[in-house]
Design a protein that fits this description.
about 475 residues, 5 strands, Apea-like HEPN domain-containing protein, mainly alpha, single chain, globular, 20 helices
Length: about 475
């Protein structure tokens, strides 16, 4: 046990920087009558004015009654069908309603119109609320599980560090951890398969039902078939599922840790499981910001850093006006032009533009500058996250585009994004024709796919064994 005294666990998922997708919401306010606010759009539910054709009983609905009416929609089969067919993002280049109406099947739009006739809501409002519910039902669920997973991971890691043996307390935490890890992997797998199918613009109830009716093993196999998941990662994910099943069905041993002789072996399983969860986070597009930040193409990095610095200046004008004034008064600094080397882990010590350090000895002002750049680097990741959400591309495809535009090789991109290089090559075709003006403005030029590349015999053999 001596070599386990200072147990150092190495996890793939960074709990401090992992990006949880924001869950959508709508608000019902009383602004001279009930108003529903969904994102940037607002709808006055109850018509006002002498010329209104609405009946008195409709016009007298209160804010609470409107809220209750919206809540009741959750139990409506037609409304749920509309929710299931909604995408999980609307690109910035489109108005939400335009995008939703163009991409939903006719049957969903007809249901929306029919619901509008039987409720006090316009069809546009119903569609916006359905879009919000779609975000909550798919994206939000996986994120909630991720939060619980990270909490449980931290708990068992602490117990392993603080004990010299595998006791019942460690067993219970280990059992809970594997249940959460398995649940997280299943949620992310389902989400990734759905997103991959939805990219083909076939948003039909049957697709959702088909994916949800699949067993978890079949979903993993599907991701392996389309090569977004490598054979090696597929095998590791299957092991996690099998380990979880063995523990659940082993009622007598409960946590089934008798075959493990040391805390080190338990720690290795934790690290392997965390690696599997990290792979699913990346290919589902939830964990792409840091890769883009370090490896992205110059035009995009310049754009994102410029926006981040501008956002930070605006924030400091409100929260730290005196400290910001000291930086503005410094002749060596041009705040708007501050840039840093994104490949380094700490940008504060790698400023490349906007400040001259030679002979500078004002330590207090230096600390203020470092704090400013630290805030700007956080805003930089937020900007990447926002651009990925507003893109006409899926988040994972957005990352592929930025890395491809940087001129990296297929195998490098595949390694950084935990996927197969053949998948990267294939998605290059999709990006080439699907990128809108929004993406083209960010990266200057979308690379054109090159000539055909046939798989080698070795690649064929590996795929057969997937």
């Amino acid at each position: 046990m001596g070599d386990d005294t200072n147990l150092d666990l190495s996890f793939e998922i960074d709990a401090e920087t992992v990006s949880l997708s924001p869950i959508g919401e709508y608000q019902v306010l009383d602004l001279e009558g009930p108003v529903v606010i969904v994102g940037d759009a607002s709808y006055r539910v109850v018509p006002v004015g002498e010329d209104s054709e609405a009946s008195e009983d409709v016009r007298e609905l209160s804010v609470d009654e409107i809220r209750a009416a919206l809540s009741e929609l959750a139990d409506n089969d037609d409304f749920q069908s509309i929710v299931d067919n909604c995408p999980t993002n609307t690109p910035l280049v489109y108005d939400d309603i335009d995008y939703l109406t163009r991409h939903l099947p006719t049957s969903s739009l007809q249901k929306c119109q029919k619901l509008s006739e039987s409720t006090p809501f316009e069809k546009e409002l119903l569609l916006q609320v359905a879009y919000v519910e779609r975000q909550n039902s798919l994206v939000g669920h996986a994120d909630n599980v991720l939060e619980y997973y990270l909490e449980q991971r931290a708990e068992i890691a602490e117990k392993l560090r603080s004990t010299d043996e595998i006791d019942s307390d460690v067993e219970r935490s280990f059992f809970s951890y594997l249940l959460l890890a398995s649940a997280l992997i299943e949620e992310l797998t389902t989400e990734t398969v759905l997103n991959e199918l939805f990219r083909e613009e076939a948003r039909l109830d049957s697709i959702t039902e088909h994916v949800r009716s699949m067993g978890h093993a079949k979903r993993l196999e599907k991701l392996c078939d389309i090569q977004i998941l490598t054979g090696g990662d597929h095998g590791s994910l299957v092991e996690v599922k099998e380990r979880r099943n063995n523990l659940v069905h082993d009622a007598q041993k409960r946590a089934g840790l008798d075959e493990l002789e040391s805390r080190r072996e338990v720690a290795q399983i934790l690290e392997q499981t965390d690696r599997c969860a990290s792979v699913l986070l990346t290919i589902s597009g939830k964990n792409i910001e840091s890769v883009i930040a370090k490896r992205g193409c110059e035009p995009y990095i310049e754009h994102a850093q410029s926006e981040a610095v501008a956002d930070t200046i605006t924030t400091w004008e409100q929260e730290n006006p005196e400290r910001l004034s000291r930086l503005h008064d410094c002749e060596r600094a041009t705040l708007e032009e501050i840039r840093w080397d994104t490949e380094e882990s700490d940008p504060r010590n790698n400023i490349t533009e906007g400040f001259t350090f030679d002979g500078f000895d004002d330590e207090e002002r230096y600390e203020i500058l470092m704090e400013f750049v630290g805030d700007a680097s956080k805003a930089f990741l937020d900007r990447i996250d926002a651009d990925a959400n507003e893109s006409n591309l899926d988040r994972f495809d957005f990352a592929l585009m930025v890395l491809l535009c940087a001129g990296h090789r297929y195998e490098e991109i595949a390694r950084w994004l935990d996927t197969d290089e053949k998948y990267v090559q294939r998605k290059e075709n999709v990006i080439a024709w699907r990128a809108s003006q929004f993406e083209k403005d960010l990266v200057d030029e979308i690379p054109r796919p090159e000539g055909p590349t046939w798989p080698s015999d070795t690649e064929s053999d590996e795929q057969d064994g997937c």
